[in-house]
Amino acid sequence: MQLRNKVVVVTGGANGIGRALCRRFAAEGARAVIVADIQAAAAQVASEVGGVAIQTNVTHEPDVIRLVEKTLNDFGVIDLFCSNAGVGAQGGVEASDQDWLKSWNVNVMAHVYAARAVLPAMLARGEGYLLQTVSAAGLLTQLGSAPYAVTKHAALALAEWIVITHGDRGIKVSALCPQGVRTDMLRRAEFGGGAFLLDTALEPEQVADEVVKGLAQERFLILPHPEVAEYFRRKATDYDRWLRGMRKLQASTQVLKAPA
Ligand SMILES: NC(=O)c1ccc[n+]([C@@H]2O[C@H](COP(=O)([O-])OP(=O)(O)OC[C@H]3O[C@@H](n4cnc5c(N)ncnc54)[C@H](O)[C@@H]3O)[C@@H](O)[C@H]2O)c1
Fold this sequence. Notes:
- By secondary structure, this protein is an alpha/beta fold.
- The chain has a single domain (7-253), classed as NAD(P)-binding Rossmann-like Domain (Rossmann fold, 3-Layer(aba) Sandwich), CATH 3.40.50.
- It is built from 9 helices and 7 strands, in the order βαβαβαβαβαβααβαα.
- The chain is globular.
- It binds nicotinamide-adenine-dinucleotide.
- The site of nicotinamide-adenine-dinucleotide has 28 residues, from helix 1 and helix 6.
């Protein structure tokens, strides 16, 4: 997909990776960039890129339906829906139910609500593109955060399922799976599970570059850190060896000590 003249929606567009995507899509000549975020700062990004802000809580299905209906009413079509908003959470199985449910709602159900809302019009047209921001944690794991590792795996499973089920009817899907990216999310995790990701962290603009390339090639996996493909291959080739390696990495980074 080329972005020129396309109508694009980006959730979590007020900050970080989402904001970089909005800026880059506008620079690529998108006809409309709709910046959807729970934060009012979406308006600043929209005015910067000549787009439209629609305040949206992606975990509240009526908000997502309103976002899609308003965009379809105003622009007639949604070419690309980037379901990008996500949240991190520290901790293992002992993390609170509140943290587990928030991670589930933002990192998984928001993608379900988005797909439910956009797919009917896309299927009727016989074309449409979903970009799901997942994470390398969806292919590998997230040291220090069980809720993040689990919900990002679920998000990847949903992306696969959608393209397997609807790919023959013109629906394209890409799953964006970076490791560390220098955004507020990574900065918040600096002293927890995210610390060891800082060395190889990319700027959000570098991720946006890779997204534009990945969309042009219509690749399912978009890997801004190409080494993730090799880690994923090793995991699939010898799971036990991969698990031993991850335990060593966990011990060396001390991100989550076993409960005493
Ligand atoms: N930063 C990283 O290291 C990294 C790595 C891999 C994947 N990701 C993923 O990238 C995506 C974007 O993260 P980021 O790093 O830009 O984080 P960020 O915290 O900078 O931005 C996330 C945005 O999502 C919005 N958001 C959160 N909950 C929302 C909700 N309920 N409704 C609407 N908007 C909501 C926030 O307001 C914020 O603007 C997430 O899915 C994240 O899991 C991030």
